[in-house]
Amino acid sequence: xxxxxxxxxxxxxxxxxxxxxxxxxxxxxxxxxxxxxxxxxxxxxxxxxxxxxxxxxxxxxxxxxxxxxxxxxxxxxxxxxxxxxxxxxxxxxxxxxxxxxxxxxxxxxxxxxxxxxxxxxxxxxxxxxxxxxxxxxxxxxxxxxxxxxxxxxxxxxxxxxxxxxxxxxxxxxxxxxxxxxxxxxxxxxxxxxxxxxxxxxxxxxxxxxxxxxxxxxxxxxxxxxxxxxxxxxxxxxxxxxxxxxxxxxxxxxxxxxxxxxxxxxxxxxxxxxxxxxxxxxxxxxxxxxxxxxxxxxxxxxxxxxxxxxxxxxxxxxxxxxxxxxxxxxxxxx
Length: 333
Hints:
It is built from ten helices and 13 strands. The protein is of the alpha+beta class. The protein folds into three domains: 94 residues, Rossmann fold (3-Layer(aba) Sandwich); 64 residues, Dna Ligase, domain 1; 144 residues, ATP-grasp fold, B domain (D-amino Acid Aminotransferase, Chain A, domain 1). Helix 1 packs across helix 10.
């Protein structure tokens, strides 16, 4: 099969904010995916999603399938850019549709759907201007986030606030820096979990991954912030959480967490692959924080491959399953 791998590569640019390229993929990740595809007998072309003549490229270079990990360039619906072009040209691709990708990038819209589907998610409020009155039903502590960013961009320990003064200062800061609306939600004290789902004929829920930040006190971070994700494993900075996969949960709680992740995957309309981030409260309620239809696939550091390995899969098998799921959907349509 002839495959195009669409991606945005991480760059070094000191003129940009430190987290500017966080969502993009490292050279190591791209090379690992290419190697896995070639191991399975496919030919692969690497396609830079940021090139200006992308439409012309695909018109001139027909492929059997696009393996899409591109985050897009900019805007409210950037993760939908590549799928939109491919849909227009009738070229099949891995992963979720334009609608699901656009929806999942918008945390507030996602949470509205989760609420409508009776899927637990922290209570929230969206601030478009920053001058809106706080909903009195929301209880401190609250966490403040950019509404349309991934990879924990804009999130650090100072985003968890305990009073109105700190809240509105943080809202103003994020609104000014990221030029977008700000999501405020109740901060759930509890255990950090993430759940991966793969589809190949039917959904497969991978072993739950638990991230324990008990040993990260030195960093001042105690949840999955941007620094925690970007410098994960750095013991000198105190950014080396412990991972447990399967998570340390009893059978009933594990079932409930997996069921919640699957419902979220289906409610957002994801295809092939997704990773749902969950906070398990002290009352054992699995609160969905967000869903990522384009989870990281770094073979050494990303959470999704770690869960696949715990399920007994090898990296090239994981990549092939994603590809086969997309091929199966194409045949059905």
